[in-house]
UniProtKB/TrEMBL annotation:
Belongs to the UPF0111 family. This is Phosphate transport regulator. It comes from the Bacteria. InterPro entries: PhoU-like_sf, Put_Phosphate_transp_reg, UPF0111_domain. It holds the Pfam family PhoU_div. Transmembrane segments: none annotated. Gene3D superfamilies: Phosphate transport system protein phou homolog 2, domain 2 (1.20.58.220). It comes from Noviherbaspirillum aridicola. The lineage of its organism: Bacteria, Pseudomonadati, Pseudomonadota, Betaproteobacteria, Burkholderiales.
Length: 208
């Protein structure tokens, strides 16, 4: 009787998808920012707005988790998944704000490439989250997770090469410090996407 009176699965998968969509939107704004600095403040504001929308989705998910008696996935997995996805947009917001606060006048090809890899990772996160409501999709999801891992490795290589070039060729210490911070934040975005992939892989092992 008690179980019938409590909420059951809720709309967790819908909320995951909403958040993943926002991650992609935020990453697209970051690529646009890196492509054209003329709209810097507009792009930064757009990323901040998207991040606030994602915070609401995260809060709604956690609130639903507290209210739901029977969840479609392990409660801890739901919590880890939505908070790790939220980390992606938090870092994208950090990157945009850092570029603005540091008054960076031009960006390097390496920073733009890292932003593009952030977008590619976010799109793969979105692609696998959409499939999460059906464990018959487990093979496809695992394949996408492997692609996220490869993209994160690509970002590692880009950052290492960028750091080497920066310390070798950049004569201005202030510019070096600023660009180093941007590189590190953007590379960490791909790390968080890999964290999401690892969580999804664990969910598949537990449920498929």
């Amino acid at each position: 009787m008690f179980g019938r009176l409590m909420p059951t699965e809720g709309k967790f998968f819908e909320l995951f998808s909403q958040h993943a969509d926002l991650c992609v939107k935020g990453a697209k704004e970051m690529v646009a920012l890196m492509t054209n600095f003329d709209d810097l403040e507009t792009r930064v504001h757009a990323i901040e707005t998207i991040e606030k929308q994602a915070d609401k989705v995260t809060y709604e998910t956690l609130d639903l988790l507290h209210k739901t008696f029977i969840t479609p996935l392990d409660r801890d997995d739901i919590h880890k998944l939505i908070t790790s996805m939220d980390d992606i947009l938090d870092l994208l917001e950090d990157a945009g704000q850092t570029i603005s606060l540091y008054d960076i006048k031009a960006i390097t090809p390496e920073a733009k490439r890292l932003a593009e890899l952030c977008l590619a990772c976010a799109e793969k996160v979105q692609a696998t989250v959409v499939l999460l409501n059906n464990m018959d999709n487990s093979r496809e999801m695992l394949g996408i997770c492997e692609e996220i891992d490869r993209l994160e490795s690509d970002a590692d290589h880009v950052m290492r090469a960028a750091m080497s070039k920066l310390f070798r060729d950049e004569p201005d210490v202030r510019t070096l410090i600023k660009l180093k911070a941007i590189y590190e934040i953007l590379e960490t975005v791909t790390d968080r996407c890999e964290d999401v992939a690892n969580i999804i892989e664990a969910i598949i092992v537990e449920n498929a």
